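Predict the structure of Arginyl-tRNA--protein transferase.
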Amino acid sequence: MSSKKAKTRNEASSSRGNVVGESIVADCGRNRSTCGYCKSPSNSSISHGLWTESLTVNDYQALLDRGWRRSGCFVYKPEMDKTCCPSYTIRLKASDFVPSKEQQRVRRRLERFLAGELDVTPRERPEDRDISFPGDVLESVRKIPGAAKSEQKNEVEPIMKYLSEQIDNEVQRCIQSGELPSNIQMPKASVKKVISAKRKKLAEGSEELLYTCNIAFPIVAAIKRTLTSEKGERNNNAEEDRLSPETVSEKLLSAMNKVGEFFGLSTKVCKGHINFFSATQVTCSDRDESESHCATTTKSSSNNLQVRKRKLEIHLKRSSFDPEEYELYKRYQLRVHNDKPESISETSYKRFLVDTPLIEVPPSGYDDEKKVPPCGFGSFHQQYRVDDRLIAVGVIDILPKCLSSKYLFWDPDFASLSLGNYSALQEINWVQQNQAQCSTLEYYYLGYYIHSCYKMRYKAAYRPSELLCPLHYQWVPFEAAKPLLDKKPYSILSDFSLASSSSSETLAESTSEHEDMKQGDTSDDDEMNYFDVDLELDSSRNHSDITNILISLGGPRLRVKDLPRIKNPVVRKQLESMLINYRKVVGAELSERMVYELR
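Done. Here is the predicted structure for Arginyl-tRNA--protein transferase.
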């Protein structure tokens, strides 16, 4: 195509209100940095970067399917065979998604919270609360005076279940704040009734001990097992050596004090146990093994407490700066990621999560309006609000084939609701619902999967998922890829299917991009310039055909083959090397479609 025709095509695209537009990129080349996953002190993380002035949704979709990902207006791709932690693009076909038991539990937990059956913010002062206790717990409080025998020996009273959940919430808060390790599967708390024969062993003083929890003991044991397994010997770190059931229980105590107040209970730590005492006089009777306690006669106004349902609203809005979102982002980074306050600014926030190169596509402006969801295509922020309180924000891109999840930040007070998992379920559900409007919209992209990083493996729990082969750009079922990744972090995932005749054609096509391409455009010998000549004279250098790369020279768009001859051999070689690398990382089709901006 001549430069005149190329320019005419681009002008035609822009004439439709910049709905389609054009992608303009500048090649930043290789980048080395420290790795946030393996924490290597050296610059072991290696990637290739592009700075994007603008990017069509179709071109970004194509980049995703070649292993790229964006951060603001910067798009990057790990050099998989060189970087310390190979990062594989992972996706899920929404219509095939089958939620696991844990994912179903996350959904049910949030539904219980919205129904008023679960409280997740025990750290607030009682007088500041605007949320009520679960109905089953209120019923337990009402039954405390003169409580009768349990009908079953092992019956778990609602109040015990509720107290157990609150301890679990506090454990999660300690993990998020760094007070407890985050790389350990913590045991669940279990609050139990205390029979009279054991009360003196577990508590000191004259108060009536009603409930106890020994969660600190299995937590300490789990931490020590993990440290021993990871280091091959007992951890000698002084801080970890000081970790004991008593110190763990003390960490959990402050929140439990506030919870106990509502039930006329006082809370103390004794011999590593978290104990709940009656704050007033009680009478108790023990009968065999099925004894039941009579709980305290409280002066609380429990009969006046009402269960109040909460309302969850999810709002999808175009990416833009929102002060309320920024304040939530700061709290999240400070409390969950332990960032320093001086490292967080509006500028860095905008650059990371607000700025976008994607050209907005409204639902009424696409070439085929039947293939656009009601919101259109582009970059969005999805707000999660409970009773109008902003509790989470998902930063996402909606593209012709997928919803691509970029980042999520949430209110640390709601850590126990597993909002990261819940938002993923909502985003998958969004794709399922919008497929009727946009038939090409099939997939949910979860970003990068890093098999060598344990914290990133959770993404494979969304099944059935696929990983992108880093060489042939085929999608490979995770179950087939996992055995390869178990052997080594970097693997050509499509190797497992080389013998399959059904995939041989696709493999041959994708492999052709990596083979030596020595032919130039011979349709018009008069248009051949130094690039064609160089490629023919020295084919042993394994050059790819760069003659059709589209270049911007500060205005006009030209193919490389249409450029005037560059006389300076040094400049010529330098430009040629840059274009060869660029074509290699973005592929032949994109290199001829996107505009390569020379700076």
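The first helix runs from residue 3 to 14.
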